[in-house]
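Figure S7 source data.
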Amino acid sequence: MASREQFSSKTGFVMAAAGSAIGLGNIWGFPTQTASNGGAAFVLVYFVLAFCLAYPALMAELIIGRHARANVMTALRGISTGKFTYRLGTAVGCYGVITASLILSFYAIVAGWMLAFLLESVCQILGWSDVSKWLVSFSFERNIIFMALFMMLTISIIAKGVTGGIEKWSTRLMPLLIVILVGLIIYVLIQDGASEGLRVYLLPEFSQINPRLIIDAMGQAFFSLSLGVGTMLIYGSYLSEEESLPALGAAVTLVDAGIAFIAGLLIIPAIYVAKQYGAEIFTDAGQLIAGPDLIFQVLPVLFKSMGSVGMVVGLAFFVLMSIASLTSSISMLEVPVSLAAEETAASRVQATWAIGAIIFCISTLILLNFDALFGFVIDLTTVYSQPILGVLLCIFVGWIWHRDNLLAEIKKGHPEIQGGFFWKVWPTYVRFFCPVLIMTAFIQSVV
Ligand code: TRP
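Tokens for the predicted tryptophan complex:
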């Protein structure tokens, strides 16, 4: 058997994992959830949950992955201890792979819109107004063309493998993303109206902390850290044994939460600057506009009103969104592709194209029945499946896997860990607290 690919360095892994984590969830989801959930109170709860709930779950995935050095299904089977848990591993692995594929099928549609708006900014600069208009109007043709384009980009990176595809492009694109993000923040913060937005974003209203807010923050943390479906597990499986997992996991959590926080410094003030320019920023019910209208209507009003500078700012904004989407989507596609490439006779390239084609078909189906399926698939995967899978993975680590093997795995790259805080707390934590907390929040939100 050919030797399995590995990230070439610690930085390579952090870039790839942070690239997966940092996506539309950070730049769009987090700021708008914050705005509609009482500003800084949500930020606070989010940070607590990211470190106390999402980080331990992330560790579970990274540890299983590096131990098994395989895709999610093979990995769970590998740590099973009997016939029943072996079958459970197969089932949970399947569920994860299907969920990852379905998440990609709606993510590719949204990311396609980002590409369309990116191209629109270019057409504006060139003065091609007819094309511009078509690019920003919602139509089946536009949606399918740009979804296909985005899928092709994702496929072409994944077909190239771990170091030549995932690592290479994450290390190129992530620094660029940060530069654009910081540039945009500086620009927006010096505009009129920005300080009102900052106030909404940063001043907590503690009276707003309620069960709904906590559940939203948990869902957001799970989505943002790409948890449950085996994405982080497969990235962990490409990590060298010399690296310390708890430290790397903490770095990824910190970077992800940090970028979400600074994205809020861009989006919320930008909304209030747009208000100065006459954009409608509240819904009829008095809530801040948070959904697609925010990105595709409110912010474009802002860009348009800023004249020729606005064209460049708009372009930079949609380049930022497209990059963030791409480094995330590759991590979703890697989940089914690694399974197919490792468990069937297909080569990586064949597996990538075949699975890419299947996901393209699912996305097309969603586009054909947009009103019925789009929201449904998002809820099915992110609201229901991700927390359930999160609990199942904690059960695998906390209850099924032998504790000695678990310890042996964490000790690699971190020999002194047995006496430390992490090993004292974490195993019990993933055994009891994580599943109970996740389930409680989940049941609350469903009932
Ligand atoms: N975390 C990414 C974001 O914030 C999305 C993402 C990538 C994801 N891989 C995932 C979400 C796996 C759930 C599962 O946009």
